[in-house]
Write a structure and sequence with these properties.
two-stranded parallel sheet, single chain, Rossmann fold, alpha/beta, signal, globular, eight-stranded mixed beta sheet, 2 domains, 10 strands
Length: 444
């Protein structure tokens, strides 16, 4: 757990001077697209949806403020509403709605209505997702009735949207459950850049030849060098093992399933160096690796000579000052200032949206005095958003009980390195068998 740590200010003058040498030329170029000018569309023929077998529900669908939506209300409606926020959809023009697949049966069985928006844009447009999801709640009030309580939940980018909704509109919601959420906001994009910049350095690519943008040359020329020299497609070379060690530290520290996780994502992450650091929505480049610290071990108090050499050899990327603006602009920040109960779920071996996102969220929440309103639960899976229905339903049931009774449920201690490194970490809330996890046979 060393990303953006205090070590960044104690590396010594030589490292800081060396790291800054290539900053001016390392900033990814590009200008954010104007989302309002892109001809997104909703295929209305795809909006209708069927009820689940055994349930009698009222279902609504349509387009509201440019976004498609679905609403489902069970005949035994308890008066409460759950808003569901979907994840990243890519940059295509068609806007689509997702049902809350794993949670849907639980919600209907327990009398909850739910509603989901396509959002009126695609791309990593969290701000618009927040606005459209919030607007859907208002539409529900007029189309069905005003709920007695409203919850918000979502996966991945939808988890980012969920966390921002809980902070920006806390008075409108009673509880929130981000799942596999990007609750470290732009730190996710720093992590993608970190992986690729460290991989280039370990592959022997000189600092003045390292690519900070994932263009065609990077994909066709540099990535094959990395794959070959680090043994990415077979047995890792010693330098490949170093990349693995750095990645484990950047993504949350020593923990179970790390070997399986790295094997699952090592190629995939080489495709995550973006050609445009605005991510299509920000006023300028949001990526900042100037305070990243790369280590091969979990000793966060010091850097070895070899680690110092690596940190000096990696080209750093600076973010543009105008991307620091707050609120619903660019890539909204998750500050940890929510005022409602929140249960956050994350997979321990997810290296696409890594476990470290939750550690950052927990740290920010504690810094703002809101730690009593956050519970984080770890699920032992290496997939991104690798939860089953029981895991999601139990998390949501405990959130509901927390809101209703005021008693905070149990969670995992994700900020204690010793607890995280324990071989049994994450078993408390994991349900079901994972063939790569020897502990899964012992989980509930």
């Amino acid at each position: 757990m060393i990303k953006k740590s205090f070590l960044a200010v104690t590396l010594g003058a030589s490292l800081l001077i060396s790291a800054s040498a290539g900053m001016a030329s390392s900033k990814p170029a590009g200008k954010a697209q104007n989302q309002a000018t892109i001809p997104y569309y909703v295929d209305e023929a795809k909006l209708p949806f069927d009820s689940l077998a055994g349930f009698n529900t009222k279902r609504y669908w349509g387009i509201h403020k440019g976004a498609g939506y679905r609403i489902e209300v069970p005949e035994n409606w308890n008066g409460e509403l759950v808003l569901y926020a979907h994840g990243f959809r890519g940059t295509g023009l068609e806007l689509t709605v997702s049902n809350p697949a794993n949670l849907r049966k639980y919600l209907l069985e327990n009398g909850f209505a739910w509603a989901a928006s396509s959002y009126s844009t695609n791309g990593y447009d969290v701000a618009q997702g927040v606005k459209d999801t919030h607007a859907l709640g208002a539409l529900f009030n007029g189309k069905v009735a005003k709920p007695s309580r409203t919850y918000v939940t979502g996966h991945s980018m939808g988890g980012h949207i969920t966390a921002v909704l809980a902070e920006q509109y806390s008075g409108s919601y009673d509880g929130a459950m981000p799942m596999c959420g990007v609750t470290g906001d732009t730190e996710l994009f720093d992590y993608f850049a970190d992986y690729n910049m460290v991989a280039q350095t370990l592959a022997g690519i000189p600092k003045n030849q390292q690519k900070t943008i994932g263009d065609e040359e990077y994909t066709s020329t540099i990535v094959p060098q990395i794959v070959s020299k680090l043994g990415i497609n077979g047995k890792l070379t010693p330098e490949g093992e170093k990349l693995k060690a750095v990645t484990i530290n950047l993504s949350g520290g020593k923990r179970p399933l790390s070997d399986t996780a790295f094997d699952s994502y090592k190629n995939f992450l080489l495709g995550q160096l973006r050609p445009d650091g605005t991510y299509g929505v920000a006023a300028g480049n949001v990526v900042n690796t100037t305070d990243s610290v790369y280590q091969f071990d979990d000793d966060i108090s010091t850097l070895s000579a070899e680690e110092k050499a690596l940190n000096e050899a990696v080209t750093r990327i600076t973010s543009d000052p105008q991307t620091k603006q707050q609120g619903l602009t660019g890539v909204p920040k998750v500050n940890g200032t929510h005022k409602i109960p929140m249960v956050s779920l994350h997979n321990i071996g997810d290296l696409f949206v890594p476990f470290h996102m939750q550690q950052l969220h927990a740290q920010r929440t504690a810094a703002n005095g809101s730690e009593d309103l956050l519970v984080t639960r770890v699920i032992r899976d290496v997939a991104h958003c690798g939860f089953n229905s029981q895991e999601e339903s139990e998390g949501f049931a405990d959130l509901i009980k927390w809101v209703a009774e005021g008693k905070k449920p149990a969670g995992d201690d994700i900020l204690d390195p010793a607890a995280v490194a324990d071989e049994h970490f994450g078993t408390q809330f994991t349900r079901g068998y994972r063939p790569y996890d020897p502990e899964s046979t012992h989980t509930h």
